[in-house]
Amino acid sequence: MIRGANSSSVSAPAALELPATATHHVSRLHGLRTRTRTAVINAAMIPRMLETADMTERAVRAAGIAAPLMIMRSDGGVMDVEEMRRRPILTMLSGPAAGVAAALLFAGVSDGIFLEVGGTSTDVSVIRNGRCQIRSAEIGGCKLHLETLDVRTIGVAGGSLVEPGRPGTIVAVGPRSAHIAGLPYLCFSEHPAKSLKSARYETPDDPAERLCARAGEALLAVTPTCAANVAGLVPRGDPAAADASRTADGFAQLAPELGFSDQNALADAILRSAAMRVGELVRGLIRDYRLDPALVRLVGGGGGASAIVPAVARELGLPFENVRHADVISAIGVALALLRDSVERTAVNPTEEDIRRIRAEAFESVLRMGAAPETIQVFVEVDTRRNLLRATAEGATDIHRPEPVGERSSAVATIEETVRTSFGKRANNISRGSTAGGFELWTAELRSTGLLAAFRRTRPAIRVVDGAGRIRWASNSADWAISMCARAPADLLALAERHTRYSDAGATIPRCFALADGRIVDLSGLCEASQVAEVLRWELQRVGGGEACILLVEFA
After folding, report:
1. What are the tens digits of pLDDT across the range 382-396?
2. What are the DSSP calls for 429-451, one per residue?
3. Is the pLDDT of residue 141 over 90?
4. What pTM, to 2 d.p., does this model score?
5. Has residue 74 been placed in a domain?
6. How many separate domains does the chain show?
7. Per-residue DSSP letters for 57-92?
8. CB distance 106 to 332 below 8 Å
9. Could you tell me the residue range of the domain that residue 373 belongs to?
């Protein structure tokens, strides 16, 4: 059953223990058709999701677990079971969100492109300034009033099947996979390498010929995981690791029949073909989000990370790293994800009171779920193009504070090396700046490149290191100032004013941030200086006015 936004309540069907959805419960944005569509899907999900939730909760309690039951959301956070019962639609597309949550909270990624590589597909997403990127969900080509992580999926992964072409070429890798075809990987088989013969495997629903190795009556899939082991890209102990020597011998048997000079040439062709397809997706994200290529690094997760991520990094000329425990990264993400909720309103030229009210509503929502007040952070966004006002609150059930600067486990020399590597070879005058708010500031000047480099000014670059020695914020076009929390709003306005651009369309302020009490206060979603000052004032209310903080602005 669905009730409209103007209906008094859903209490009547609820009293009869009937599932019900009110459109204003799933969204308060304008757009009757989209809001109704969203409510219809939510209503359709309620019966099965309620049954699943009740069954899961009974099993958890029967196991003697007293911890609250939390469910993953599509935007990378978690919610309590009562909220899920009301809005099960928030769980849609939540699978890839768990890996991104782990990249943020477990691996400490603040800026990068995260690739979660499985056996059949790779999920690719952007993390920027310690935040995952959000977009409106679409189902069947229809938009919903539902925010999800911008995770883009491609059918290339560790278990993808290979389509060979003319001698010495590989036409494609994926989207068909060994898992779908029900074939074991060549690199994990026990068949002797000398018994392998190349074969073309054709499935009834996929007319393209896929490369396999025949060992007697058995068919073994040739995959990027096999190729990565031959190329020496898989470290020992990795979930994708196999007997590299035996796999190379197998590739040596197959290579001549496929027109390749040796096993290395075959492995390289497979990896290049896979990397080109994933690389196109990565380039698209860099372009769509206007990422600074000098700051982009690839971060891999999932059991097939070592089969794909190193090859993509080589193809694009980017640095990369694979996270620890990559094969269980999604499970870690679910365990660590923060309580989260978003509140949205349609608002034309929102006032400071509108912003204060929606911020308070988001804060109270995650507080009711059980978040500790000290951990709750609220990100407010004003989208003038869509007349949208959004507040997203995140908080933890336990208080986690970063190590104070000076008591970190990482050596200072290691931190300096990490920072210098991040700045790159174009950096001059790298120096360790001020320490405040639980963070340490590093600055540098970046030389311009190209034909007109001699006539261009150097650009100021900033890296922010937290108490654990990790880079938490980075920009190659930024300015900063040290302030006290009591006067931080006024000081941030003065700093932003120096970098505000004026045009016929009005003033465009830089993206603003503040570092205080171990937190990064992200004000980049606000478009007016007065809004920035007011929200920062609210965020610093629980911090002593005499505490030092760092103010940052980022500009184009």
Report:
1. 888 888 898 989 888
2. EEEEEEEETTEEEEEEEEPP-ST
3. no
4. 0.80
5. no
6. 4
7. HHHHHHTT--SPPEEE-TTS-EEEHHHHHH-GGGGT
8. yes
9. 339-395
